[in-house]
Design goal:
269 residues, five-stranded mixed sheet, 20% strand
Length: 269
């Protein structure tokens, strides 16, 4: 079968919102039209994608798999279309992915001072899939934190970033100047195998509620400060390695120039 990309976009919106009405608003179409398109996609695939009740919309196992595939397919196609337009219009473009709290702006400024005609895009990389923008074509280079899947990537180490304890402002430890790992023994820690969060917003809300603590990169702490949270250095916590990453078989001179300039700039920073 030929997969209709429009229907796939419609499906991805419903899967994201878990709500036909909100998805229809985002897509600027009527809800009955959206419902018919999703039903048509399910008929074409030969399997249900959603479990619908009067109160909720949930993905089936097949829907979960299609949503995972769609999150790779749709950005990849959008990036390919952009590249086609760039070639047609004679535009040179470089897209740089970055992990939350890592600042690549100094490197971009240094690069554009030597290559003023190159268009630069920045692409946020979600912490649980930092390599995704490199693999789906949305970015040619990433400023990332290890660990991530390095298969097929060339890695250029940059440095090490300290980790700090993010704790509720009312926590007994909040009055300390610094902590050790032993101080955190017995605390409810986030981002352990038993308790993981997807978004930073979710993480910080859980911590601010008073029942959790997390070790986070210093850059994240500085970029997402809020009055109900305190960030304290943990003197014996291992640092996080930062690096530049590119797909291993990308030989473009523009990309090599960016790597050279960004490596020198970010290491100095």
């Amino acid at each position: 079968m030929d997969l209709d990309l429009r229907k796939l976009r419609y499906f991805a919106s419903v899967a994201e919102h878990r709500h036909f009405g909100r998805a229809a608003e985002q897509l600027y179409i009527a809800q009955p039209v959206l419902s018919r398109q999703i039903k048509s996609l399910e008929q074409e695939l030969g399997c249900p994608l959603f479990v619908r009740t009067t109160r909720s919309v949930e993905l089936t196992a097949a829907g979960e798999q299609l949503y995972e595939e769609a999150q790779q397919i749709l950005p990849s196609i959008a990036a390919a279309v952009r590249r086609v337009h760039d070639v047609d219009e004679g535009v040179q473009r470089l897209a740089v992915a970055f992990s939350p709290g890592l600042h690549v702006s100094d490197a971009i400024r240094a690069f554009t001072s030597r290559h003023p005609d190159v268009e630069i895009d920045v692409v946020p990389a979600r912490w649980w899939e930092q390599d995704r923008p490199l693999r789906d074509g949305r970015a040619q280079v990433g400023y990332l934190r290890r660990p991530f899947d390095e298969t097929g990537l060339r890695i250029v180490p940059i440095g090490h970033e300290p980790r700090v304890a993010c704790i509720p402002a009312a926590h007994p430890l909040a009055c300390r100047q610094e902590l050790t790992s032993a101080d955190l023994d017995g605390e409810r820690m986030l981002d352990t195998p038993q308790r993981r969060t997807l978004t930073l917003e979710e993480k910080f809300e859980l911590i601010a509620s008073g029942r959790n603590i997390a070790l986070i990169p210093l850059g994240v702490a500085r970029s997402y400060s809020r009055p109900d949270l305190v960030h304290l250095p943990v003197t014996d916590a291992p640092g996080i390695e930062t690096c530049l990453a590119v797909v291993a078989d990308r030989p473009e001179k523009l990309l090599r120039d960016f790597l050279e300039i960004a490596t020198a700039t970010l290491r100095r920073a």
